[in-house]
Design a protein that fits this description.
Mean pLDDT: 86
Structural class: alpha/beta
Radius of gyration: 21 Å
Low-confidence stretches: 102-106, 355-370
Strand order of the largest sheet: 3-4-5-6-9-10-11-12-13-14
CATH superfamily of the largest domain: Aldolase class I
Strand content: 15-25%
Helix content: 25-40%
CATH topology of the largest domain: TIM Barrel
CATH class of the largest domain: Alpha Beta
Distance between the termini: 39 Å
Oligomer: single chain
């Protein structure tokens, strides 16, 4: 039985160079292929005309493109666009192109940010998120992550210059593939987006945060916090049972010290769950411990979940407590609320609508973490 072709966009330049050496080819051939992939954006080996016909045929046998198919594109009045994408095996994922946003992570307002997915579904069961409602299927390989960026630029006709790993899935549970994708997205020979314009978000996998601190790239780290005490956070984030706040914050301190970086705490405001004044004061204590900035986001309604979005008056009261405590904090009344832009919603609506069965949590890399 023939070996399964390797997705070529999952390979870094070094990876591809080694593969070419194994084929008896000169290393510069790998650079030629990389240029075709990322500078010229070709979609077929036949288009790589400075390679011999024999080499192109050999590449077509050993490698695959695994292009993503655009199933739907939803646009909102504020020009946020959500892409529903079909993978080679038929699974669906989402990515969201977000237009210029004032003070998004402190960046200038001309940024175009793409929120990418790293898994099909999610095993971590965060209580505000649609991604995990139907379980976990599999990790994305690096090429499927990279291709989301290329596809968004192709469809929109616009340059993506900011990446956030905040789509479907837990990025740090797919560590190796995400690290390879980040290398390709960041590299001058790849997509060419600076490391400080790449933000990786996690629900709180403390060991992997420490592992990330050892990586050379200066990507930014965001923590899906959503609760400033263990009692509150466990209601929202089941992962807190394995990695409670004391363990998580120790890992964050280590990351901030090693990287000399500010950490971003994402805090979704849910009415009568984590939006009380005492919750704000508890959050202020965390920010005194770690160089950080808090991004507060009013809950984005998800069909099938019972949480409620706080009124703007409750949101403002929460922010007032943070300001009184001198916390660096912004409130992001998110774009795309009218296009089901919360993570996993469009995929779930599509699969439920066509009778697709939910994904079981039986894959080896979706084993229970609690």
């Amino acid at each position: 039985m023939a070996d399964t072709p390797t997705p070529i966009k999952s390979l870094t330049l070094n990876d591809l160079t080694e593969r070419f050496r194994a084929l008896g080819q000169k290393p510069y051939r790998a650079k030629q292929v990389i240029e075709w992939l990322y500078a010229k954006r070709v979609k077929d080996f036949a288009a790589m005309t400075n390679l011999s016909a024999d080499l192109r045929a050999q590449l077509a046998e050993q490698f695959s493109f695994d292009a993503l198919e655009v199933v739907r594109v939803l646009g909102s009045e504020d020009t946020t666009r959500k892409f529903l994408l079909r993978l080679g095996d038929g699974a669906l994922i989402e990515s969201v192109l977000i237009p210029a946003s004032p003070a998004l992570y402190g960046e200038a307002s001309d940024r175009r940010t793409l929120c990418v997915s790293t898994q099909v579904g999610c095993a971590y069961g965060c209580k505000f998120c649609a991604s995990g409602l139907d379980g976990f299927s599999r990790n994305l390989h690096a090429g499927e992550i990279v291709e989301q960026v290329l596809k968004a630029e192709e469809v929109s006709g616009e340059r993506v210059n900011n990446i956030v790993f905040m789509g479907m899935g837990e990025p740090l549970a797919n560590f190796a593939n995400v690290m390879s994708a980040i290398e390709i997205i960041n590299a001058h020979w790849g997509v060419g987006i600076g490391a400080r314009h790449i933000t990786l978000s996690t629900s709180g996998l403390a060991p992997q945060i420490r592992q990330l601190a050892e990586q050379p790239l200066q990507v930014r780290l965001a923590i899906s916090l959503h609760g400033a005490t263990d009692d509150v956070r466990e209601k929202i984030m089941p992962v807190n049972r394995k990695y409670p706040l004391s363990v998580l914050l120790d890992a964050c301190e280590d990351y901030a010290e090693r990287k000399r970086q500010t950490i971003f705490f994402e805090y979704i405001l849910i009415e009568n769950v984590n939006d009380r004044p005492e919750d704000a004061w508890a959050l202020a204590q965390i920010t005194r411990r770690i160089p950080s900035k808090v991004n507060c986001i009013p809950y984005n309604t998800v069909e099938g979940l019972s949480w409620t979005r706080p009124s703007e008056a409750r949101q403002d009261a929460f922010m007032a407590v943070l300001r009184e405590a001198d916390v660096r904090a912004t409130i992001r009344r998110e774009k795309g609320h009218d296009i089901a832009a919360a993570c996993g919603q469009l995929r779930r609506q599509t699969e439920v609508g066509r009778g697709v069965p939910t994904a079981p949590r039986t894959a080896e890399d979706s084993r229970p973490y609690l």
